[in-house]
Amino acid sequence: MEMMRSFERYNLLLNGQVVRTPLALSAMAGIVDADYALARASHVGVAFLGGFSIDAPTMEASRAMERSGRREFLFGDPVEELAGQVQRLEGSGLVVGLNLRGSSPESFAAIASHLGDQAIYEIDAHCRQEPMVEARSGEYLLSHTDLLAEEIRALKREDVSVSVKIRAGVSPDDRLLARKIWKAGADIIHVDLMDYDYQKVRQMRNSCPLVLIANNSMNTFDRVRDMFSHGADLVSLARNADVRTLAGLDAAIERLTDEQGWYNAPKQLCRGGDIRALTFCCMPVKNCPLLPMLDRLGLSREEYLSFKQKAVAGTPLEPGAQTCFGSLAWCCKVSSPCMFRDMTLAQSGLSRQEYMRQKKQLADKIIQHLFSRDAEPHTCTTRPARDGS
Fold first, then answer.
1. What's the pLDDT score for residue 128?
2. Per-residue pLDDT for 249 more than 80?
């Protein structure tokens, strides 16, 4: 029953499982294991355990890092250890992820072939410690993206869910990196924003349709909400993942969702929103941010008009004769005052929360349409806006 309510509230599925809340634990080597996750399971939906080194080069790197004073997970048999970690979380309600450090596609495939689809397999392209980089793992992959793509494809051949943990600002262009990760077949991008803000999240959301997890300093609701409103599907915590912080964020996100209907609704396009904000845009009849966005997407005005009209046909968003453009399809976010929209909602018996849920469904259709038109997607990466989005 609880999971059904969570699905109705957030509509989040990862690895075929309902995500209880869009809060995740991010891996920290030597710290985040099954016991750590279980102690926080009441207030997170996903737990990425690890990082775990899984082959001889990366295990030797872990030993070198431990000798230098860093905490690491060290064990003899990676398969046995990881299977035990996953087993300890059975029945916890958590979606389990394993953050893995490997030096070759074969190393990742070997783990997945033994453990199967019990967990999400997260490729660690994040660790910047010199021994791990020298082992062709961690940040090494951000400057050797062909190897990263091979590792993603090796895991996908095992028919498992794949996440890639990256560090923002290391690759020459994070938008191109996001596209390459997507085109290789990954399901999730988990990005450590480091010194960057929501702009990096928006860039990636505008470049690929993958699940996005924003990481680093997600310890206040204002920061979490900024990530959600610019394209993040989840946020993750590591060093600040104490139970009190998680409980506060969990309660605040639930309250926001129950009040507004869509927990990660984007800002409107004219206020810096990502491409999902097209769900709130009106007809292209005036000089506003919609027009340059359509140009960057390679979307004609006619295609935009036709698509939205077809997408809302037969849904509660189709009517709206009293609205500015004759349909709720062209109406704005509920946070913007509009007597015509609100009058239509009242007359149709559509709550503001249900209106926003319908707008989310329209946004999902827009994303699917934009990223499925061609083998090579049209995104904002080819002609970036002045703010880099």
1. 96
2. yes
| CB crowding 125-162: b at 16 or more within 10 Å, else e | bbbebebbbebbbbbbbbeebebbbbbbbbbbebebbb
Smallest Cα–Cα separation from 17: which of 119, 112, 89? 119
- Which of these, 159, 56, 149, 50, lies nearest to 102 by C-alpha position? 56
Question: Residue 167 and residue 189: Cα distance in Å, rounded?
Answer: 10
pTM (predicted TM-score): 0.95
Q: Quick one: average pLDDT of 340-353?
A: 96
Binning pLDDT at 50, 70 and 90, where does residue 278 land? very high
Whether the CB-CB separation of 68 and 23 falls below 8 Å is answered with no
Phi and psi torsions of 167, nearest 5°: -115, 125
With CA atoms as reference, report the closest residue to 362 among 277, 283, 288, 289. Answer: 277
Q: Does domain 2-260 have CATH number 3.60.15.10?
A: no
CA distance 206 to 276: 8
Domain extent listing, the chain: 2-260, 269-372
Task: Give strand pairing partners of 212.
Answer: 189
Q: How far is CA 10 from CA 71, 185, 228, 232, 256, in A?
A: 35, 24, 12, 13, 11
DSSP assignment of 115-156 equals: HGGGSEEEEEE----HHHHHTT-GGGGGS-HHHHHHHHHHHH
pLDDT > 70? residue 380: no
pLDDT at residue 206, as a whole number: 96
> Are the CB atoms for 341 and 331 separated by under 8 Å?
yes
User: In 238-338, which residue ranges form alpha helices assigned H by DSSP?
Assistant: 243-260, 290-297, 301-312
Query: Which residues have C-beta within 8 Å of that of residue 369, sequence separation ≥ 6?
Result: 307, 311
Q: Are 84 and 161 in contact (CB under 8 A)?
A: no
**Mean pLDDT score of the chain, rounded to an integer?**
94
Given a cut of 90, whether residue 388 has pLDDT beyond it is no
The beta-strand segments (E) located in 179-255 are 188-192, 211-215, 234-237
